[in-house]
Amino acid sequence: MKKGVSFLVTVALVALVSSLASASDPSPLQDTCVAIDEPKDAVFVNGKFCKDPNLTVAEDFFFSGLDKPGNTSNAAASNVTTVNVDKIKGLNTLGISMVRIDYEPYGQNPPHTHPRATEILTVLEGTLYVGFVTSNTENRLISKVLNKGDVFVFPIGLIHFQFNVGKTKAVAIAGLSSQNPGVITIANAVFGSDPPINPDVLTRAFQLDKKVSSQNPGVITIANAVFGSDPPINPDVLTRAFQLDKSVVKYLQSRF
Ligand SMILES: *[C@@H]1O[C@H](CO)[C@@H](O)[C@H](O)[C@H]1NC(C)=O
Ligand SMILES: *[C@@H]1O[C@H](CO)[C@@H](O)[C@H](O)[C@H]1NC(C)=O
Ligand SMILES: *[C@@H]1O[C@H](CO)[C@@H](O)[C@H](O)[C@H]1NC(C)=O
To answer: Where found, per UniProt (predicted)?
Structure first.
């Protein structure tokens, strides 16, 4: 009997230890989180510190002003107003946030990814041509023209865009599955990094010389996804996103 009990205790302990061992690390809530040894030097714990729950108030869960359009006087002719954990502190640890996006006629939210979130978008006004590109080696473009009331999903991590193909302004609202989704705008990250990426890297990656780059299965190779999707992304989107002549975009699309 005693032997039976200690056996059960052993089984329970092994089960407990192995469940701890197989538990995964928490998802990152920001780009980097380098460990430090002194807690007093900490900036935050994967996300933000928590307020004493007894001191929470309605304002911690509130934001006002999403009825106002963002300023679209910029190269993309669009503006994203984010309502994330920086705007609503009560979103901390809840895994959700939202944005309002305004587009001038022919304005766009250029090709970008959210490293930490899936996005679900609805059109309030106007007509948007939207799409996302699957990862290598397929690089399939999944696109659609959306009208008022239509809803579309952009899966986590995939390159996607919205382009206002109507003659009037467009407005969309989107929900994102992170308190801090992050945004990587492809053209800015690749051609606008600070300091710049060695041009030899980009020359070969984007086949701006005659050499052919290799493809790596299971990853998103930026040049392939953006210029080599099947079917191709509307050249007007890439012309504006990369600030290129349409002829250059068509040349790049023929190379991938
Ligand atoms: C919150 O309030 C409750 C009830 O007044 C109290 O028991 C508890 O200790 C408080 N918690 C903190 C973190 O102060
Ligand atoms: C978006 O609009 C806001 C509010 O008008 C403005 O402060 C911000 O600079 C705009 N962003 C861009 C990229 O134009
Ligand atoms: C929008 O941004 C542009 C460029 O930054 C600026 O000149 C203009 O005054 C802004 N408009 C509003 C309404 O804030």
So the answer is: Secreted, Extracellular space, Apoplast
CB 250 within 8 A of CB 188: no
Looking at the chain, the domain(s) classified CATH 2.60.120.10 span 75-183
Q: Which pLDDT tens digit goes with each residue over 158-214?
A: 999 999 999 999 999 999 999 999 999 999 999 999 999 999 999 888 887 754 444
Residue with CA at minimum distance from ligand 1 atom 9: 54
pTM of the model: 0.83
The answer to whether the CB of 54 is under 6 A from ligand 1 is yes
Q: Is 52 in the pocket of ligand 1 (CB under 6 A)?
A: yes
Q: Is the pLDDT of residue 3 over 80?
A: no
Strands (E), 52-185: 78-83, 97-103, 108-113, 119-125, 128-133, 141-146, 151-154, 159-164, 170-176, 184-185
The ligand 2 atom at the shortest distance from the C-alpha of residue 79 is 1
Domain 75-183 matching CATH 2.60.120.10: the answer reads yes
